[in-house]
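// run 5 | inverse folding | seed 20
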């Protein structure tokens, strides 16, 4: 398994950050690994909702079928997906209000046989992508 995380303080209220985070039509404006939603983003943000995302990580394209696991408006969005080569992917966005700012944390995990072969490189690449995503997200809402 490879686990990654990144955290940033964004100078915007949690509701504003959440609105950008869940605007799937503008997902590519901040998410560094996102390339497209071939069928559009999730139809609803409810536990059990599914959607397909095309991504690029470590220079490789991947299609992931996501299932929404947990949603708490302006606080938590957790999704779990199945990718190529039997890789399971989990992503959890946590928002913690701090006055007029918000601390945003992204936790990700990758599991599967293919992950063990490239865990170190995957962690480095995914962490860099999370950091870049948080910088871009901050720029859009601040």
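// decoded
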């Amino acid at each position: 398994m490879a686990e990654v995380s990144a955290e940033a303080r964004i100078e915007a209220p949690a509701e504003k950050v959440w609105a950008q985070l869940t605007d799937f039509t503008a997902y590519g404006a901040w998410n560094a690994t996102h390339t497209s939603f071939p069928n559009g983003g999730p139809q609803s943000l409810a536990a059990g909702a599914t959607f397909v995302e095309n991504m690029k990580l470590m220079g490789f394209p991947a299609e992931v079928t996501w299932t929404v696991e947990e949603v708490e408006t302006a606080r938590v969005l957790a999704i779990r997906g199945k990718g190529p080569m039997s890789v399971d992917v989990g992503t959890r966005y946590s928002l913690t209000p701090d006055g007029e700012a918000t601390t945003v944390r992204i936790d990700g995990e990758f599991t599967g046989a293919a992950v063990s072969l490239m865990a170190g490189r995957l962690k480095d690449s995914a962490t860099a992508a999370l950091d870049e995503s948080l910088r871009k997200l901050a720029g859009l809402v601040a």
